[in-house]
Structure formats: C-alpha cells, structure tokens
Design goal:
The chain is α/β, with parallel strands linked by helices. It is 64% helix and 9% strand. It is built from 42 helices and 20 strands. It is found in: Cell membrane.
C-alpha cells in the first residue's frame, strides 16, 4: 500500500524546498540570475542521451542490459502487487464463511514470490547501473584529462583556466555520472511501473480506468499551477530579502562611515522596512503552498470518490468483483504516481547532457600542435643551431596585438644568446616559439636548418630544456619532480643532477632528503630552492638547447649567486637562450640581442654594444643604474626591507586584506597594507590559506558552540502564541486525515461485497465522505501552512532585526576579524535566521502532526482488532529499518568517494595549471599514470557502494512484501477463529500503514534540525555578545558647548587584530582649539590611527584622550561622534541619491536649504545642478557613478552639514588628479576656518599652511612645528620626507 504515499511525499518535499529557497534569498539571488543566464545560453548545446554512453566497453554494455532487465522487473512489481492485492480482497470477501485461511494463504504465497523476485530485480537494477555509471564516468574523466594534456598551449590561453577544468572534472562528471548511472535505472523502473500499471488497469476493467483517467489532467493542472505560484512567490520573497541583504552589505562594508556619522538608526530602519516586505511575501508563499497542496489532495480524494461510486456501478452492471475494482484503482494510482516521480530523473538527464557537451567537445578536439602525434622526423642528435626566419606572430588569446612582424634571429650552436628589452617586447615569446608551444602565423622556426613543424614534437621537446622565472613544481616529492626530466631515471642520475644544480646540499639537510614533499606548487621550498630543483630537472634531461626565462629574477642576492653558478656550469657547450631583466646575468653572453616592439634593434657582445652610448642597450643599462640608486635610498627609508620582498609582501597583504575585509571602510586602506607588510616576517605564512582559497567558507571560531535551549527560541516566538495554537489545531486535523482515509478505504472494501441494494446506497454515502475528507484536507492544509508561516516568518524577521541591531553597534575592531566581514555577517543573517525557523514553527507542526497520525492510527487499529494490531505493529519497524538502511547506504559511501576523487583531481589541477611545464618535459604520460593510480581507490569504493546499495534496495522490497503477506495471513487465521471480521483486518492494516506513512514522510525533515541548532548557536552568539564600544549606549556626559581642545596623553595602542604590532608607544600631542594640525610620516607610522582613536573606533591600551579637558570615554559616544566631521581618502557613499547622501550627515533629516548650503560650501553645487537629475541622481554602488573629485565633494558636504566642531581629514585629496584636487582643496580651506582640524596627508601642498606639523615615526612624535621651521632642520625627518617627495614628483 506504499502506493498512496507517492503523491503527498513529493509535494511535501517540494514545499519545504521552496521555503528554504525563499530564505536562501539574497545571497544567492544575484548568483542565480547569473546561473539563469548561462543556463539559457547552454540550453542549445546538449548531447543526445545515447551519446553519453559512447565510452562504454563490452562489460558496460552487459551491465547496462542486466540493469535494464532488473529495472523493468522492479518497475512491474508494483502493478503486479495491485493484482495480488485485488485477489487478496476477493479471497477474503468471497470466502467469508468457509476456508478463508486456505484461500488467503495461497495469495499470501504470491506476495512472498513477488518479494523474492523484486529483491533480485532491485539488486540488479541498482548495482548494475551504479557500477557502470562509475566505470564510464571514470573513463570519461581520464579521457578528458588526456585530451586536455595534448592540447596546444594556445588552447589554454584562450579556452580554459584551471578552475574551469577542475570544475569540469569533478562537477560535470558527477552530473554526467548521475545522468548515466542509477538515474537511468530509476527512470526505466518508473516508466515500466507506469506502463505496467495502465496495462493491468485496462485488462482488469477498461471502463473504470477510462473514467479515472479523466481526473489526471485536473491533477496535473493543479500541481503545475501550484508549482508556478510557489516559485513566483518564492522569487518575490527572495527579491525583498535581497534588498535587505544589500543594506547589510553596505552598512557593514562601510561600518566606519556609519559609525562616524552615527547612521546606525537609519540603517536599522531601512533594514526593517525591507524585512517587512520579505515577511509579507513569506506569509503569502505559505498561504499559496498550503492552498496548492490542499487543492491537490482535494482532487485526489475527489477521484477516489468518483472511483468508488463508479466502481460500485460497475460491480452492479458489469459484474466486476470488488477485488478488481480495488485493483484498477490501485493500478491507476501507482501508474500515475510513478510518472510524477520521473521528473527529477529528467532534470538529471538534462543536466548531464548539457555538462557532457563541453566535455565531449574537448575530448573530440584535435589540437593543431599534438604532443601525442608520433609522426615527424627524429634525428640521431641535433647540433642546436636556432634560427627564427621572418616570423609573424600574435597570441591566439589576443589576435589583434601583433607581437612579431618579420622577426629574424640566428643563434649558432654552442653559443649563449641573451635577449633583453622592456616588458612586453616579445623576449619570452621567442622561447615559447622555440619549444613549439605556438606556431608562427608566417615565417618559420628552424633548428639545424629544419623547420620545427617537421620534427616529431615529443622528440624535439626532449632536446630542449626550460628553466623559467616561476618554476612549476608538482605536488609530489623532490625526487619525483626531478625525475620529470627523464623517463626511468635512476636515483644515481637524479642525485648527480641535483649535485650539478647546487641543490644537493639543501636537499640533504631536509629531514626526508629527496623524498621531501614539495607541497602544492612547491610552497614548502624557498624560491632559490625551487629554482635549483627546476634546474636539476632540466639537467637530467641533458638537453642540447637550454632556455632560461628570467631564471634568477625572483631571487634574493644570495640565492641568485648560487643559482647563477649552477646555470653557468650547465651552460657549457649547449646552445643557450637567456631572457633577463637584470643585466648582470647577461654580461657574459656571446651575443646580446636587444628586442624592442617585436624587432631586434641591436645585437653584439656586451662591450661592443656599450660603445654606442645612444644605443638601446646603453639606455637600458642607464635606466637600471638609475633604478638601483633610488632603490638604495628608499631601502634605508624602508627599514632595510629589500624592495624585492617588499613587492611581494605588500601585494600579498593587500590581497589578504581585500579578501578578509571586503573593505573595512574609510581611511584605512593606506596604513593597513603597510603596517602589515612590515610586521610580518617572510617565513610566517599567516593567512596564506585564506588567500589561496577565497572560496573557503567564512572562518567561524572553532570552539564547540554551546547547545541552545529551545526555550529561548520559543521565547522569541512568544507574541505569536495564539497563531501557533490555531496552527497546531490545523496540524492535528491534518495528521488525522491519513488514518481516517485508511478507515474509509477499508470500510469501502467491505461494502463492495454487500448485496446490490446496500452497495448502491453505501457507495454513494462513502463517495460523499471522501469528498468531505477532501474538503477537510483543503482547509486543514491551508490553515496549517498559513499560520505556521506567519509565526515562522515573524520569528525570522525578529531574529534578523535583533542580530542586525546588535552587529551594527559592535565596536569597529570587531569587524577587523575575518569572520565578521560583510559577507560572513550577511550569510549569518540570511541563512542562519532562516534555518532557525525550522526549529520552532515547522518542527512543531511536524511533531504535532506525527503524534496525531500515530495516535489516531493506533486507536483505530486497536479498537478494530487488538490481536492483529499487535502483530502488524511488530512488523512495521522492519519496514522502517529497511528505509533507514537504504538512507544510510546512500549517504555513507558517496562522501568517502568524493574525498578520494579529490586527490585525483588534485593531480589534474596541478598538471593543467602548469601545462607549459608538462608539455616542455613531455610528461603527459606520466601525469596520466599518476592520475589513473589515484583513481583506482575511489573506483573500487564506487563499485562497492553500488553492490551494497543494491542489496539494501532489494532488501527493502523483500521485507515490504513479506510484511504484507504475513499480516494478511495472520488476519485470515484470526477470522477463522472468529476473533475478528473481514473489514476489521483491512481497517487495522490500512490505519497502521497510513499512520506509518504519514510519520515516515514527516521524519524526512529530521536532518535539518542539526543544521538549525548550529545556526541558532551562531545567532545567539551574536545576540549575546556585548559591544566593547557601544554607540547605542546613552550613558555618559555631553558638554554644553565644544571649543575643540584635543589632547592625547601617553597613548599606547595596538590593533586588536594584530596584537604583536605596536602602533603607538607613549604618544603625546596637544591640538589647540580652532587650529589646524597636520600629521605626516611614512605609511604605517600611525597617522590615520590618530583619527580612528579620536572617533573612538578603538580605545587606547593605555593613556587617555581628552576633549576640552574631559576624557572622551566618559562622554556619550553618539554625541561625541556628532561633534566630528570625517572626510577620508576613499569616501564611502551609499547607493542612493546625492540628496540622501548629503543629508546622511544629519541623520537623514536635513532641510533642503541646509543641503544646498552644504553643497555650496563644498564646491559641489555647480556640478550637481549640472547633472540631469540634479540632487536626485543615484550615485551607484559605493558612489561609482561619480568621479573621484565629485565623490569627495559630496563627502565634504556630508561632513559640513553635521556642523562639526572638529574636522578630521584623512588623506582627503590624495586620490585625486590635480584639477579635482584644486577644487576640493579649495572647499576644504573654506570649511577649515575656525574649526579644530586634524589633517593626515602625503602631499605637501595640503599641509604647508597648517598651524602645527607633527611628524610621526615608530609610534611617537619626533618633530613638530611650522613648515618653515621644520624644513630648515638639517637632516631632520621632515626635511628628508620633503626631499624624497620632491624627487619623487620630479621623476
């Protein structure tokens, strides 16, 4: 009887999914739209389904045939069951007086046969399809990688990046495997159930079948309409929440601006406004879902009513038996249900076909330069003359940029040629052409006078060795890395190569020696070590031609010397081509060619070329000398950190910052990136992991989250108690429906065997009862989902608001931590709040409904026949267990396999990421072998999983049908002993199976609660945390009038996110009322920190800051911040109109006159009036629609409208061009009059006129005074800063 569940099952799942969808909302929304677009483009490109199997071998075909046979058998078992069921009712109904047991036991045996048969069929279906899917997917993966590795390098420039490839290998093959594995079996099973059901129904009673078919279109229409409505509603809810999420993103992304302008209240109000709309659409969605489900159930019950009334008519007029009527009803039901369940299979096929298109296209692609192509010349050896003759070339990725037009170069064998020139002149291109990574468009590349194209590619590449600027090492041991140079190299050869490359010393020092793993991309080794391993790899190859592409440029002086020595050793009597920037490396070359814009402009030896002082080479040399000079001077400035490292570290830290903070808002960018780069020694890879993997989920604190009492959550839902009560009543009603349905069905079965008159009367009555039941469902279902979604949406809204209020009042330091970036907080607010809802409302509904079902089922069963009830009850857990086992089997193994495939895709990732190295060393075969080795484990696991799942799946059918057989046999025995009656047997059976069905359906929601628990914990963690510096705190004093005297006394400070770096140590500074103080110093000296401390974004570790003689932490925070106006380097504007952005300074309620006056003062009025919409112009995300100078002036207007007593200017003009700077500076000069002003600046023009200039260095003030006084101190800090500035601006 599991038949009846199909329908409610699928719908329940669908609604719960759509609810989750709505909550997911915003974060995904943009993403989904993007996906939507790509999907639409992709729709056109799919592969026909049969093509997915084009890589099957004979074993696969055998497996697929067996699997299909099994699937058909398994599919037919359900319709066959309906026949047996019909016979069963007949054997009860027609043998009421004599030998019931004999008749029933015959039929029960059929159930047992069916059980055994369907066990075999189900086992075959699942196992064969899973195994063949696994095998073919593995084959496709390997083929894909193999064809990728044989593609020419140009293909990778243009077509694919590593991420895409790995995504294809792991993601797309999973989709393909899905479309050609067990889903095919499932689909065949469902289709054969459908066909079988209708065939049986038509044979048993074609007329009744036709009548029943009439209701199917109605069902389809109702289901379809409901699905459309729900998705419409869900997307409305998503859009509403997406807007709320933007508020979160904007507010947290620019928390410093919000804090400085005390804009917390405004942000909360606008967030709340959007939450309101999201709430409304959430409730509507609940209503529609409930209504839709109700209507579908109503139609289903209606069709039962029709079947009963018409079935009775058939019994009277056409001589059907009751069993046949039941058989037809069940068969039609089974058949039509199975069609409904086939839709996930269809979507899996579609996804697989689309995924296969791109992969198969790649697999079939024939490269122009084919590494696997064995044709072509091989000579005994080559001399190594290289000539490029009249070469025309442009990169395939940038066909419009001609690199070479008519390039010529000749390098005789055994000589060393160096190519020098500016970046982008085409030096490295020569090297790519010699290795035949690309073919020239015209002209030819000759080696020993033979065109490269005529050689066998693999052979000629074996003669050419490459050492490049960023040597690519593979994720394996040092020994394996060197061995890439030569197939089947012995350990002795590898050692010798390492000796020659000056690498043996450092390798021997490593604990595992040659077997040390180098880490991904060689990260475990230093630059010089990596380079030497790469050289050893090239030496092992013993090439005739050696190509050195910037081989030492990324090294520090010491490593460079060692590596250079190794190179000099191996360059002896080989043709060597060197590309270099540093001229020291090319001095000794036999010939130096200067390349400029794809032409050789000069060539000769070093001294020969130097003779022409106006020549290109001499100019290059001079440029380098000049750079060296400046490098030295700035070296001393930069605490002797070498420029080289500096370049890397600041790049790394700026990357880190941009990843972890999103943007920590105002005036922070400059000092962060510097202080960090000084504070980190090179060896410490602090957040490298975070940098390497930007996709990683936000790092939540690792400590175990404490369990959250449900009481607290329920308390949050307290105002909705009346709503929840009504909902609970509806849920109880809903839970009673299925057991009552079981009661009705069993009574109806009995009435089929009554005398004609009664049958006529009863059938009408019961048909009406089914209609009534349908109406009840309609009402109960609608009420339940509606009231619970009201309560749930309210809870979500309340939690989101609470959290947001809490977050926005956190101290600024809290946002510096990576786990509190705007993205992470946004995710917590959107996803976590939504998940929590499942723990209260929906969970409650589920539990109440289950209890109602269980109680009703048991009551009905025990009242009808307690003996049979006990027997059936004992067997029901068996069915439950099988279902559980099946679930476990499905989940347990696949996770394991996925992790194992990760290793394999790592190999692929490595190889594709360094395709040039793979090509250059002809290592394609090697990579493939490694890949296949790594795939063996997961494949075995996959096959094992197939077998086990098959057994589990088969067992569940076996047990299900055996339970049927047993319970009816027991029933027959009881009837014979006169302990029970025919209708009671069916009543017990249906009441219990229906109850069990209802419960098992609802329990499918169980796994969500663990997610909800951790979500709740993370939310209460936010709600319970108290802000260290809370702007909503009303306590603290306010001053009547502010003069603006500021004093910093003995302040020491470190940023909480970098406690090891002292920013200030005992800094003291007095700023007098109405005066302008300028802070100057190097980046990272702590100038901007003064501004953060004045606004109390942070509190100092020791010492104190006073305003008009009162310590600022005793003042009311909000009031304090309103006394200060901040204009920072990168002003943050909100995505709103210019008018709103200016009014933001006054908490949003400024009069039009005030806004205009402020804009006038800020020199902004004229450009704003010039815009088409004037003050109503939307500035775009982060003010992107305005130019830098315009943004800055709007920001100044926003600061002016505050009428601040203290003005804080953090590099307010540094990011502008000269013209904008003049206008903005003009505006600033106007507003600085009679205000205490603190200026932080790099550019001198901005600080010359300050009343006091304070020079900050190493956390203290080293000089202060007026510009004229400071500039005259010989060798003073200020004077040297100015000198540096001057020389920088002149060059």
């Amino acid at each position: 009887m599991a038949v009846l569940n199909g329908d409610t099952d699928t719908h329940d799942v669908r609604t719960s999914k759509s609810n989750e969808g709505a909550e997911k909302g915003s974060a995904d929304n943009g993403h989904q739209q993007m996906l939507g677009n790509t999907k639409r483009d992709k729709k056109t490109n799919t592969v026909p389904l049969h093509k997915l199997f084009s890589f099957a071998d004979s074993t696969d075909y055998l497996l697929m045939i067996l699997g299909t046979v099994g699937a058909v058998g398994n599919g037919v078992s359900m319709p066959l069951m309906t026949i047996i069921f019909g016979e069963l009712t007949d054997s009860f109904g027609q043998n009421l007086n004599d030998n019931v047991v004999h008749a029933v036991s015959k039929v029960s045996l059929k159930f047992v046969y069916l059980a055994v048969g369907s066990f075999a069929a189900a086992f075959l279906q699942v196992t064969c399809w899973m195994v063949t899917g696994e095998r073919q997917a593995a084959r496709i993966r390997a083929l894909y990688l193999k064809t990728l590795l044989r593609q020419n390098v140009g293909f990778f420039d243009k077509e694919t990046n590593t991420g895409e490839v790995v995504g294809r290998m792991s993601g797309d093959t999973v989709l393909i495997q899905d479309a050609m594995g067990e889903k095919v079996g499932k689909f065949i099973q469902l289709i054969s159930t459908f066909v079988g059901g209708f065939i049986i129904a038509f044979i048993k009673g074609w007329l009744l079948t036709l009548v029943l078919l009439a209701t199917i279109p109605l069902l389809v229409a109702a289901g379809g309409a409901m699905a459309i409505m729900i998705s419409k509603m869900a997307s409305l809810g998503q859009n509403a929440y997406a807007k709320a999420a933007t508020v979160v993103e904007q507010t947290i992304g620019s928390i410093r601006t919000v804090a400085s302008f005390t804009g917390e209240k405004q942000a909360i109000d606008s967030y709340n406004k959007f939450l309101g709309t999201a709430y409304k659409s959430g409730v509507n969605e609940g209503l529609v879902t409930g209504l839709g489900l109700g209507i579908v159930m109503f139609i289903i019950f209606g069709s039962y009513a029709l079947a009963i009334w018409f079935g009775a008519k058939m019994i009277l007029e056409k001589g059907y038996t009751g069993g046949e009527v039941l058989n037809v009803i069940l068969a039609v039901l089974t058949g039509s249900m199975s069609l409904g369940q086939a839709s996930p299979c269809m979507s899996a096929f579609a996804a697989g076909q689309a995924a296969a298109h791109k992969m198969f296209e790649t697999i079939e692609r024939k490269p122009e330069i084919d590494a696997y192509d064995m044709r072509g010349k091989t000579l005994d050896d080559i001399r190594g003359d290289i000539e490029l003759k009249d070469v025309y070339f442009s990169y395939p990725a940038r066909p419009n940029e001609q690199i070479f037009s008519g390039f010529c170069l000749y390098i005789p064998s055994g000589t060393t040629a160096a190519l020098v020139g500016q970046s982008g002149s085409g030096k490295s291109t020569v090297i790519s052409l010699i290795q035949r990574f690309y073919d020239p468009e015209a002209g030819e590349v000759l080696i020993d006078g033979i065109n490269l194209k005529e050689f066998q590619l693999k052979w000629i590449r074996n003669k050419v060795g490459l050492v490049s600027q960023e040597p690519v090492l593979f994720t394996c041991s040092i020994k394996d890395n060197i061995a890439y140079g030569k197939d089947g190299a012995t350990v002795e050869e590898i050692r010798a190569a390492a000796e020659l490359a000056n690498a043996a010393k450092f390798i021997d020092k490593l604990p595992q020696g040659l077997d040390t793993m180098v880490g991904e991309h060689g990260t475990q080794l230093s630059g010089g070590q990596k380079q030497r391993v790469a050289i050893a790899r090239a030496i092992l190859k013993d090439p005739r031609i050696l190509l050195l592409d910037e081989a030492t440029s990324a090294l520090d002086a010491e490593s460079e010397r060692v590596v250079q020595e190794a190179l000099d050793r191996i360059m002896v009597n080989r043709t060597t081509v060197i590309v270099a920037h540093r001229l020291s490396t090319v001095r000794n070359a036999d010939m130096i060619a200067v390349i400029h814009h794809g032409k050789v402009v000069e060539k000769g030896s070093h001294f020969g070329l130097l003779k022409d002082p106006e020549g290109a080479y001499s100019q290059l040399i001079r440029l380098q000398e000049a750079n060296k000079e400046t490098e030295h001077t700035s070296d001393e400035k930069n605490n002797d950190i070498t420029i080289e490292y500096f370049r890397h570290s600041s790049l790394k830290t700026s990357l880190k910052r941009s990843l972890s903070k999103g943007s920590s808002g105002a005036g922070n960018s400059s000092h962060h990136s510097f202080t960090v780069s000084f504070g980190l020694p090179k060896g410490l890879n602090i957040t490298d992991s975070a940098v390497a993997d930007p996709e990683a989920p936000p790092l939540l604190p690792p400590q175990k989250t404490p369990g959250v009492p449900i009481r607290r959550l329920a308390y949050l839902n307290k105002p909705e108690i009346p709503v929840l009560l009504i909902g609970t009543i509806a849920a109880v009603a809903n839970g009673l429906i299925l057991p009552i349905f079981g009661l009705l069905i069993s009574t109806v079965i009995k009435s089929f065997y009554e005398p004609p008159e009664e049958l006529k009367k009863d059938s009408r009555f019961w048909a009406l009862m089914f209609m009534v039941l349908g109406l009840a469902t309609l009402l109960a279902s609608t009420a339940r989902t509606y009231f619970f979604s009201v309560a749930g949406c309210k809870l979500v809204q309340r939690i989101r608001l609470l959290c947001f209020e809490k977050v926005i009042h956190m101290e600024v330091g809290w946002f510096d931590e990576a786990e509190n970036s705007s993205g992470a907080i946004g995710a917590r607010l959107s996803a976590d709040a939504a998940t929590v809802r499942g723990l209260v409302g929906d969970k409650l509904a589920q539990i109440v409904e289950n209890i109602a079902s269980a109680v009703a089922g048991l009551v009905i069963a025990f009242v009808s026949s307690w003996q049979l009830a006990f027997i059936v009850l004992a067997l029901i857990p068996l069915i439950g267990t099988t279902g559980y086992i099946q679930m476990k089997f499905m989940t347990g193994f696949s996770a394991d396999a996925k992790r194992m495939y990760e290793e394999a895709s790592h190999v692929a990732n490595d190889a594709v990421g360094s395709i040039r190295t793979v090509s250059s060393f002809c290592a394609e075969e090697k990579v493939m072998e490694l890949y296949k080795k790594k795939c063996e484990g997961p494949m075995k696991a996959g096959i094992r999983q197939g077998l086990i799942s098959g057994i589990g799946f088969g067992l569940s059918f076996l047990l299900l049908y055996s339970v049927y057989a047993l319970s009816f046999y027991a029933g027959a025995l009881l009837i014979e002993d006169g302990k029970t009656t025919f209708s009671d047997v069916f009543r017990v059976f249906f009441a219990l199976t229906m109850a069990a069905l209802g419960i098992s359906q609802s329990s499918s929601f169980a796994p969500d609660s663990s997610k909800a628990k951790s979500a709740t914990a993370s939310i209460f963690a936010i709600i319970d945390r108290n802000s260290k510096i809370d702007p909503s705190d009303e306590s603290g004093t306010t001053l009547e009038s502010v003069k603006g005297e500021i004093e910093l006394c003995h302040v020491s400070f470190r940023y909480p996110s970098r406690p090891d770096t002292h920013i200030f140590q005992d800094l003291s500074l007095a700023i007098h009322a109405g005066k302008t103080v300028a802070l100057v110093g190097e980046s990272g000296s702590g100038k901007s920190t003064v501004i953060s401390l004045l606004q109390r974004f942070y509190d100092p570790d020791s010492g104190y800051i006073k305003l008009d003689g009162v310590e600022i932490h005793t003042l009311q925070l909000k009031w304090l911040r309103q006394q200060m106006g901040l204009v920072s380097q990168e002003p943050v504007l909100f995505n709103d109109t210019i008018r709103t952005n200016i009014a933001y300074g006054r908490g949003g309620d400024a009069t039009e006159a005030e806004i205009l006056a402020a804009a006038e003062m800020a020199n902004a009025h004229s450009f704003i009036s010039g815009l088409q919409q004037g003050y109503d112009t939307i500035v775009g995300e982060r003010g992107i629609q305005l130019s830098g100078g315009q943004k800055q002036r709007v920001a100044i207007a926003r600061a002016i409208i505050k009428r601040p007593k203290i003005l804080l200017l953090d590099e307010a003009t540094s990011a502008l061009d000269a013209e904008s700077e003049r206008v903005v500076q003009d505006a600033l000069d106007r507003i600085m009059v009679n205000r205490t002003t603190v200026v932080v600046a790099h550019r001198l023009s901005t600080i010359k006129n300050a009343d006091v200039i304070a020079v900050v260095k190493n956390g203290v003030i080293v000089e202060k005074g007026r510009h004229e006084a400071l500039i005259n101190i010989k060798d003073g800090f200020y004077a040297s800063l100015v000198a540096l500035h001057m020389s920088a601006s002149t060059t």
